[in-house]
Amino acid sequence: MRQEAAMNDFAGVLISFVFVFLIIGTAEFLRGKFHLGVEFTRKFIHIGVGHWVLLAVILINSREWALIPPAAFVLINFLSSRKNLFQAMEGAAAKGLGTVYYSLSLLILVFFFWGEEGTPFLLAGIMVMAWGDGLAAIAGKRWGQKRIPGLSQVKTWVGSAVMLLSSMLVILLILNHFFSLNMLHLVGISFIIGLAATVLEVIFRSGWDNIAVPLGTAWLLSWLVGG
User: Fold this and answer.
1) Quick one: pLDDT at residue 210?
2) pTM of the model
């Protein structure tokens, strides 16, 4: 039985690598075929790779096996940032170690929140980072005119509004699926988490938001509803 479980976990890890490289390969294809900018393909990868967590919770049982893909991509993404291995997620638009921090945050979240009780917090942290941060960057780049003064001179009001709304929607869907809460609580908690994620996304720059947003989201949500 233990050997069969290990084989299933091994298969889940292999599928994980195939999935992530398929996302990266698709972005490379789109970049070359349609001459898309690196900023767009980076966010395509940013959003797409976040959905790895959905595969992981379905296909992998052991925390130890689930840690393998994000740990591997900490190294892979570091090498890519130095050697420009994947142009669709590097290039001039990629500054700092944002892709490395992305994988590191996945690694930390899996370590602390793996298991049935932690699944909603794991999903919340990763999906808010994927969709909220990803869509905020796209919207801010395309439509953002006015930048937020103060701590951040690169984030826009449009991008932050999209971050807030998309993060709220992600949390609302997760809460509705995993918890029996009335609508007032669902909306209230979703707003608190969305606002916190937005503030973290504004404050942290140079890729550090890829750590601050998911970890802050997961731990705040676990504190609010995890007892």
Assistant:
1) 94
2) 0.92
